[in-house]
Amino acid sequence: MVRVERSLEETIDGLRFKPPKTTHGRRTISLPGNVVDILRDHRRRLIEYRLALGMGRLGDDDLVFPMADGSPYSPDKLSRDWGHAVRDRKLPAANFHALRHSHASALIAAGLEIVTVSRRLGHGSPAITLRVYAHAFSADRDQAAAKAIEAVMGARA
User: N or C: the chain end with fewer CB closer than 10 Å?
Assistant: First the structure.
């Protein structure tokens, strides 16, 4: 599980943590087992790195992906580094925020109900999710709906 409890904002005065935009933005979501394994391995390497530099162990509240000194990445730097990684690997151009949209679209394509998708994204209402991702619902889903109604009506006939 991962808890989303704060967001990072870049202001004229520098970086600051703040609560998510809405109360729904504060949430806990499940992670796939393989992602948990990758994150555990990442944490182990980060601890080794910090110990080698004499920085000590990580605390429970330390960042998962900090700068070398433990401070947060600025959103602009993260976006730039992401862009370089995409370009260097000759991947299709996509900004970092597109990962959020890819995640939501994949969940919708997998047939998850909109309430679950909305909660994972931290939207205040499934209506927001529907408005943003209406394009992700395919004609196949409409045909599946027709078959479901046919099955219910056929069972009652």
Answer: C
